[in-house]
Amino acid sequence: MLPVRSILVDFDGTACSHDVAEHVMERFGDPDWASYDEAWIRGEIDTRAAIRAQVAPFAGMRDELIAYAVEHCPMDPTFAGFVSWAQGRDIPVTIVSDGLGLYVEPLLVATGISGVRVITNDWAAGAMAFPNGHPECTWCGTCKMLAVQRAPGPVAFVGEGHSDRFGALYADIVFAKDALVGLCRDDGVPFVPYEDFDDVRRVLEASDDLPGPVAPLRCPGWTTSAQS
């Protein structure tokens, strides 16, 4: 029996081999799109404001953006098999993304992946919406802390970037690569380095005890409108 009851997976750069948002920004966005990411990493602007500014040039381009993502941004080749493996053991896999949202389902469908819940932002009627944000904190678009806390535990979290920091803080076991490695070290979060989902599967199959969450009482990203 696996030691976890839920597996939460970041999308851009994790389930998908590419950061899809970066690809569509490079192809269709304003030349200054990266400055919003840089300001966000420095803590000068929240996710919602950054994304709203970045998608401003995309009005009326939804279908074109999705078609570009499907053609140019393949999924991690080990992800589909990992999902099937987990589902065969009655462990749900959930995508938790703080990206643009619109391309997640189409890329899953294009890869033949089904039965995966998606928690992400929503670009509807040409405007960004954040249906999975925290009801009080306004820093993130999709609150990965809440996604972890609401999932049946113990929870495994798989990620790679800055948007995964707060989900990693509350998961029972964290798989990290790229920028998330340094963030976990800074936050004192035990993590397992990985390259692909075969690595994640092997570790979960061999694990008995989990590190458990750091779970600070207050998320370090906590921001409210009054603070902004």
Compact summary:
By secondary structure, the protein is α/β, with parallel strands linked by helices. It has helices at residues 20-28, 33-41, 47-55, 62-72, 79-87, 104-110, 144-150, 165-170, 179-187, 197-206; strands at residues 6-9, 93-96, 117-119, 122-124, 127-129, 155-159, 173-176, 192-193.
Secondary-structure-derived class: alpha/beta
What is the CATH class designation of the domain at 6-18 and 75-206?
A: Alpha Beta
CATH homologous superfamily heading of the domain at 6-18 and 75-206? HAD superfamily/HAD-like
What CATH architecture of the domain at 6-18 and 75-206 would you give? 3-Layer(aba) Sandwich
Query: Strand sequence of the main sheet, in spatial order?
Result: 3-2-1-6-7-8
Helix content: 25-40%
N-to-C SSE series? EHHHHHEHEEEHEHEHEH
Topology:
Elements: E1 6-9, H1 20-28, H2 33-41, H3 47-55, H4 62-72, H5 79-87, E2 93-96, H6 104-110, E3 117-119, E4 122-124, E5 127-129, H7 144-150, E6 155-159, H8 165-170, E7 173-176, H9 179-187, E8 192-193, H10 197-206
Helix pairs in contact: 1-4, 2-3
